[in-house]
Structure formats: structure tokens, C-alpha cells
Amino acid sequence: MSSAAPTAPEKPVQDPAAPRPRRSRPTVTRRAGLQLLLGVLVVGAIPIVSTARILQANALRNEQAHTDEALRGELQNALRELSGQADDAAARADDLARSPVVQRALVAGHRGRLRHLAAANPGTSFFVRSTRVAGTAPASAMERSVWLTDGGERIGKVSTTVPLNQQLAARLTRDAPRARGDRLVLTRGGRVLGSGSKVDTDGHTLRLGAVDYRGLLAVVPDAAGVRLLALRSERTIKATVAPYQRRIRYAAMGSFALLLLVALLFAGPILRLFGEFRRVATQASTDSLTGLANRRMFDEELALEWRRADRVGTSLALVLLDLDDFKRVNDDHGHQAGDAVLRAVGEVLGSGVRQVDLAGRYGGEEFGLILPETDLAGAHGLAERLRETLENAATELPSGETLTTTASFGVAVKGELGTADDLVAAADEKLYAAKRAGKNRVMPGLAGRPRADGKPERRKPKPASKRAVTVETATVTKPAPKRETQPRKPKPLEGEI
Q1: What is the rounded average pLDDT of the residues 375-395?
Q2: Which residue among 301, 347, 365, 396 is the active-site one?
Q3: How far is residue 64's CA from residue 62's CA, in Å, rounded to a whole number?
């Protein structure tokens, strides 16, 4: 340990009676506030929008189900009306077949008389045996027939029809109980009877002309493929449900606005709470003076790396180092100087290890390095580089003086050791041997410090700010003395340092 003469004028001492400036209260930055606001908007918008869309879709489905029920009732009423007209046609055919005039004309085959009867009874046709001799039948109609027999032989037939056309569909629409805008149409082969308009069917949705309808269909009995369709315009359905969907949108926008207001009001307290959580978490695992891992974090990480090395079968190295004659710094220059030295050492160690390594303050002026996948040669080489850097680094003290410090290093590898505590004891024993051998050295000493094949290259430590660093290679020549049986206990972490 060495000290130099003051290189700068002594700084004025602040009057203890003078009031200290108040620490400014941390404020919410604009970026953090915007990030929180955006997060709240995204997280809050997803359930609000999803709920609104689900409610709107349910409202539309409910209205469609109500429409289907109404159209089903209209179809049933229309089919009952058609069945009644078919029964009337059957009754007329039976009455004509029982008429003596019709019977004599059919038996005699008097075609003129039958044509006169057909003209007097629209929709009626007469057949002599199987040949139509009077009357005509529409292209699409419901037909009812009565045969006349003599001794079991058919001599003629009377047939009555109910024409299926636009007029009948309009009459059914007018007479059936229905909602405003509903329609009943008769189709065959995908076209409307009477107009020839094409009907495109896609599930419950039908397109007639340029208009989409919600529709149900039923087969007309005894009508050669004629279907009856009950239709309601999709526009009518959407117009019915639109007020409810509009109220849902207004409720969703109100919920979103309320969420935004809450986010704006509570952004500051929430961010401060997150900051406190981060500060507490950092204090639980970081040494406040050096910025390295504290003893608790160091022990936990060592246990994890030990288990991983056992599981994977890789090497694990541990380096313990202790600052030489550190008590003299506190006694000669004060605890503030000691704190400055510890901070400088922490900066050297933190910048001199890989990202996968862990540097921590082990206790007092003692530090440790956990080096996964590192053999003895690699750990020794890293310790030697750090030793040289510390030896050649100058630390500027608050008083303006500069100090240089050295450290003794103990290196141990997992090898055949049984537990992580055995690894700590082995590294501590080597550290104590370095102290006895004259300090400022790495133990065990390796001749030429050979490097194992395949050892990953490490980056050299970066020089700290306000430090003039000159790296010189030192060759260790003193033999290590006899080991002591009891490992040296780590020094407790002093809050004053």
C-alpha cells in the first residue's frame, strides 16, 4: 500500500450548520408515463372491445333466432292455407265426378259436352280413360283427381288444380300473420314462379335479385318440386338490432374513457410504486457501495452454478481476493478514502469478467468471482490480469490525493470437491497462502500459466474513469508456505466502509 502527496488544493469544508438541499422527489418521466398509458390502453382495450363485439354478435344472433321463429310460423300458416285450397279442389273434383251429367258425358265420350263443362269450371280437366279431352293444367299447380269406374274398369277422371303463381304467393303473404317487410314466394328449380328471378341460397341467407334475405323454405305437397320460401330482409334484421348495438358501443367507449382517466390519475403513484419495488429488489441482491453482487446473491449464485456444473459435467472456478493492508487506508485517510478504493476495485472487477461470470463483494474488503466453465489455468490467468490492473491503478480520493492498492488472490476449481462450501474453503486457503507468501500475488502459482485447449477468451478489464492504469506483468517466484488446516473466515460487511 502506498500513498502520494496531495496533487490538488484541499477542498473547502461545508459548514455543518448550513441547511442541506432537499433531495428532489422523483417525478414521473414523460416516456414512462406514455409507456404506462399505452400499456393500460392495450391491456384494457382488449377485454372491452372483445366484450362489446361478443354482445353485439349475441344481439344479432338473438334477432336472427327470433326472425327464424317468426318465418317458421309464417310458413306453417301458408302451408295450412295451401292445404285448405287443395282440399277445396278435391271436394270440387268429387262433386263433379258424382254429377250425372259428367258421368254420362264420360261414359259416352262426349267431348263437346266435356269441354263445355270444363269452361264452366275453371281449373278443371276431364279425362276419358287416360286421355285429356277437356281443360288445361297450369305448369305449376296442386292437383286433385277422382276416377270413375264401371265394373272395376276406369272409364274417366275428373281433375281439379290450384295454380301456383305470383298471385297465389301475394295472396298468401297478404293473408298470413307476418311482420312488416316479410315475403312469401313460390320457387322451383332455383327460380321464382311467374317472374323467373334466380334465388341463390347460402344456408339461412338467400339472395333474391340484389337483396339479401334471411329465409326458411318448405316443400309444397303434390306440387312437383315447388318450394315455399318465407323471407325477411337482412337490412330489416340489422335495423332492428342496431339501437342495442349502438348502446353497447357507447358503453364500451365510456368504459374505455374511464379506464384512461384512471390511468392518467394513478400513473404517478403506480410508477413510483414500481420504482420502489425495483429499488428494494436491487438492494436485496446488490452491494450499494461497489455495485457488485452482495454476499447473499453471491452464495445463491454459487449454489446454482455448482448444481449446474454437477448436472452438465462442466468445470467451475472460484476466485477470492482480499485487499492488502486495507485497514491502513481507513486509519491514515479516513473511511471516505476507503469507500473510494472499494468503489474503484468494484469497477475493475465488474468490467474485467465475462457476462456469464459473477463478481461480488464477499465481506469487508474481500471480493469473489464465480467463473462457470473455467478451468484452473483460465481462472489463474484472469486473476493475474486483475491483480496487475489493481496494482497499476491510481484511485483519486475526495481530498485530491491518489492511492494505489494491491490484492491477494486465491483460486480453486470444483474438481473432486464435494460441496460448494468445500470450494469456498479451498479458495480461501489459497488466498491465505498468498497473504503469507508476501501479498499481491495469485495462489496457487502456475509456471507460465498454461492455457487449456478450448478455453474461451476473456476480455481485458476496462480502466476506470479518473485512473491512470499501467499494466505490468509480474512473475511470482516465492514458493507457497505450508497450508493451515483451518480456512480463514470471511470478514463481515462493514456499513461504514
Answers
A1: 92
A2: 365
A3: 5
